[in-house]
Amino acid sequence: MNPIKVMVVDDQDLVRDGIAMILDGQPDIEVVAQATDGADAVRQAAAILDLAVVLMDVRMPVMDGIEATRRLAGGPRVVILTTFDLDEYVYDALRAGASGFLLKRSSRDELINAVRVIAAGDALLAPPVTRRLIDRFAENQVDTETVAKLDALTAREREILVLVAKGNSNAEIAAELHLTEHTVKTHVSRMLAKTGARDRVQAVILAYNTGLVTAGRG
């Protein structure tokens, strides 16, 4: 199996080199590029075949991580790196197309797992930041077109969307609903297609925006 190709983007040399060193020590991960700002990241990404994951800092010179994430949309999956769990830029970055976020103070194992999770197509919603994001989702107005997307879902697909929004992995959903992981993956794919969500992060936003899942519901 080919290793997961990763780019690390951060204007701080020590942070960037440290992350790269940790990831390069894994047999299934290869750091193929490092960038010091968003513009550099976009430029390098265009020349790298099969780049899977970009770990992206937010506050950088020349071009910030939000604009770089927007320009990388449709390409490699982007994980936002942030120092503070209250960073207001995180929400904007997710809306720009990021597939998740990770606190810079995360452990070595959390960093490695994040790359694997994102490369596998799942969302990465770190618990310390999720609550604030949910609060922001709840502030949005929902149009009739967005609500209509939910109406297109079957009962099972809505059930799975709720579990996805609560942060469950495919394996956890399969266990709870007594289904195979393959069946869950099929339902998730259909749910994403019907709602027009690019990935699980957008599905989570949809679920909270429409009230299908609320911050107070367990």
UniProtKB/TrEMBL annotation:
Pfam families recorded: GerE (PF00196), Response_reg (PF00072)
Highest rank taxon of the organism: Bacteria
Keywords: DNA-binding, Phosphoprotein, Transcription, Transcription regulation
CDD domains membership: LuxR_C_like (cd06170), REC_NarL-like (cd17535)
Domain Response regulatory, first and last residues per copy: 5-119
Bilayer-crossing regions: none
HTH luxR-type domain segment(s): 146-211
GO molecular function (one): DNA binding
Positions carrying 4-aspartylphosphate: 57
Record GO biological process: phosphorelay signal transduction system; regulation of DNA-templated transcription
PANTHER family for the chain: TRANSCRIPTIONAL REGULATORY PROTEIN NARL-RELATED (PTHR43214:SF24), TWO-COMPONENT RESPONSE REGULATOR (PTHR43214)
Protein name: LuxR family two component transcriptional regulator
Species name: Kribbella jejuensis
